Amino acid sequence: MSRRFFLLFAASFAVAAAPAGAQEFTPYLQASKTLMAMRELPRLKDPIGPALLDILGDNQTFLDKRPFTADDMSPLMEVCGVANKISVSYMLHGLDKGLAGVDKNDMQAAARAMQAVAMRNVFEYQDELAILMPFTLRCQARMAPLMEDFLRKLPPEELTDIRKGGVHQIQNGAFGSYSGYLTMITGSGIKDANLRRMSGTMAEVAPAYASIMQLAQRRQLHELAAATKAKAPAALAGDLEKVIQAMASDSCNALCSVQ
Q1: How far apart are the C-alpha atoms of 4 and 48, rounded to whole Å?
Q2: pLDDT at site 9
Q3: Which listed residue, 54, 105, 158, 211, has the most CB atoms within 10 A of its CB?
Q4: What range does the domain containing 235 cover?
Q5: What pTM did the predictor assign?
Q6: Is the dihedral of CA 146, 84, 188, 96 positive or negative?
Q7: What is the domain count for the chain?
Q8: Where does the signal peptide begin and end (predicted)?
């Protein structure tokens, strides 16, 4: 019995009474709990690493089997949150050491230290992140139309400052994902296969992410993507063109319009 099959088989007993919408995500959530309970972040070279990461990067099983509806919003949001937490745990691994000696009251210094840790880990854990990050990105892309539908139907008086703040965090997160991607692909040290996988995913989900962002954010990324295309590897030109086209859209839905 393969490790992947064992993990899926064991997970199937975890929440037998769960609603159908949530139960289909049980193997993913169980695998995530296994990962988060490990003392060290699993690597592809570890005995259990490949099977565990295979589940956590399996968008075909967990994200592509069927269209999602409003009833799926809560369980899908949980999965997306867990996926993001796992990706961040790799990207910010060793953050405490990276912040040692940094004045935590100096927000700019702390941000620079955090960015340095993240960039170092992008290279160190690139094989693992090339599996995990596409799932995280696609999960958020599946959430976008559900969130837009929720906001569009929400009575204006229920769009509270707290909800607006949550939308702003989502918008800024989407913007940060693309600005980080556009910075990364012009650097060195990322394997070609990993770069193509990440870039292909960013191109695929660009329309969904663009729909989240405010128009001003899209314009910034449109300019950055156009400038990046001129100096990026030729193999990524097609992906970058898709990002440029997505960010050129001036359509603004209920998500985009939250200021």
Answers
A1: 9
A2: 35
A3: 211
A4: 69-248
A5: 0.85
A6: positive
A7: 1
A8: 1-22
Structure tokens at 165: 């703040």
Residue 127, domain member (yes or no): yes
Residue with tokens 């709990």, as numbered in its chain:
33
Cα 135 to Cα 141: distance, rounded to the nearest angstrom = 10
pLDDT score at 226 = 94
Residue 256 lies in a domain: no
Report pLDDT for 18: 42
Whether residue 73 lies inside any domain: the answer is yes
Closest C-alpha to 174, from 131, 130, 144, 147: 144
Place of tokens 């003392």: 39
Mark the ranges of the chain whose per-residue pLDDT is less than 50: 1-20
- Which pLDDT belongs to residue 21? 56
pLDDT computed for residue 236 by the predictor: 92
Contacts of 150 (CB under 8 A, 6+ apart): 70, 73
Cβ-contact 161, 258 below 8 angstroms: no
Per-residue burial over 197-229, b if 16 or more Cβ lie within 10 Å, else e, is: bbbebbbebbbbbbbbbbeebbebbbebbeebb
Place of tokens 């991607």: 181
Assign 13 to helix, strand or coil: coil
In a domain, 47, yes or no: no
Q: How far is CA 96 from its chain centroid?
A: 23
